[in-house]
């Protein structure tokens, strides 16, 4: 049975929600990382991801400047770092270094990969839309990488207030 509900209440039932990390690099070489729940695959030929990135995010500024980013699937061991990446803006902080995580060079973009992630996708910006109040960024995957350890599992957001497990 269903009952009418406000959109906020209905959306509150969406969990568990996937979370990814969007990695970017400034022209000066600073690596920035942001947590993103509004993400989906939108094409498999060529492969493309769509990300919803709010206007204030430093990540959006860097993607617009460099046309490149990496999407990483964080592992369950990265809950603390993902919360950090998702609650602190990177304009004046070096989040990549502060996190203590290891980054390694990619193949096709200048943005590095997250070494211990479940998987990494190197992306080049295709386009940006704004159908509502949130900019939507579409990136084509130009190279992909997986963790050699198949037992490393993805982190997910299990509830309001960022219950990362
Ligand atoms: C689990 C989780 C999911 C998030 N999902 C999004 C999202 O989909 N879009 C968004 O704009 N911000 C999202 N955020 C918030 C950003 O990650 C946050 O604003 C971050 O500090 C932006 O970093 P930046 O300014 O360095 O780019 C999320 C945060 C967390 C913890």
How does this structure look, described?
The structure is a single chain. With 165 residues, the chain is an alpha+beta fold. The protein has one domain: Electron Transport, Fmn-binding Protein, Chain A (Pnp Oxidase, Chain A, Roll), CATH 2.30.110.10. It contains four helices and eleven strands, in the order αβββββαβααβββββ. Strands 3-2-6-9-10-5-4 form a seven-stranded antiparallel β-sheet. A two-stranded antiparallel sheet has the order 1-11. It has a two-stranded antiparallel sheet with strand order 7-8. The longest helix has 9 residues. It is globular. Bound molecules: flavin mononucleotide. The site of flavin mononucleotide has 21 residues, from strand 3 and helix 2.
Write the layout of secondary structure elements.
Blueprint: H1 7-11, E1 17-18, E2 20-25, E3 31-36, E4 39-44, E5 47-52, H2 58-66, E6 68-73, H3 79-85, H4 95-99, E7 103-104, E8 113-114, E9 119-129, E10 136-146, E11 156-157
Antiparallel strand pairs: 1-11, 2-3, 2-6, 4-5, 5-10, 6-9, 7-8, 9-10
Flavin mononucleotide (FMN) is lined by residues 19, 32, 34-38, 52-54, 57-59, 83, 86-90, 157, 162.
What structural category arises from helix and sheet content?
alpha+beta
Cα distance spanning the termini: 30 Å
- As for the CATH topology, it is Pnp Oxidase, Chain A
> What top-tier CATH class fits best?
Mainly Beta
Number of strands: 11
User: DSSP strand (E) fraction?
Assistant: 35-45%
Spell out the helices and strands N to C: HEEEEEHEHHEEEEE
- What spatial order of strands do you see in the largest sheet? 3-2-6-9-10-5-4
Give the integer mean of the pLDDT values. 98
Range of helix content: 10-25%
Supply the number of structural domains. Answer: 1
Shape: globular
Helix segment count? 4
Note the main sheet.
7 strands, antiparallel
Question: Which CATH architecture?
Answer: Roll
CA gyration radius, whole angstroms: 16 Å
């Amino acid at each position: 049975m269903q009952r009418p509900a406000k959109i906020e209440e209905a959306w509150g039932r969406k969990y568990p929600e996937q979370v990814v990390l969007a990695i970017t690099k400034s022209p000066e070489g600073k690596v920035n990382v942001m947590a993103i729940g509004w993400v989906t695959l939108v094409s498999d030929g060529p492969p493309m991801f769509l990300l919803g990135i709010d206007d204030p995010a430093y990540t959006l500024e860097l993607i617009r400047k460099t046309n490149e980013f990496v999407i990483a699937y964080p592992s369950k061991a990265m809950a603390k770092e993902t919360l950090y990446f998702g609650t602190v803006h990177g304009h004046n902080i070096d989040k990549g270094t502060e996190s203590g995580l290891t980054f390694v060079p990619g193949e096709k973009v200048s943005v590095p990969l997250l070494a211990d992630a479940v998987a990494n996708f190197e992306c080049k910006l295709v386009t940006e839309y704004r159908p509502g109040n949130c900019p939507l960024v579409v990136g084509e995957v130009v190279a992909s990488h997986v963790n050699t350890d198949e037992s490393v599992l993805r982190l997910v957001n299990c509830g309001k207030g960022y219950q990362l497990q």
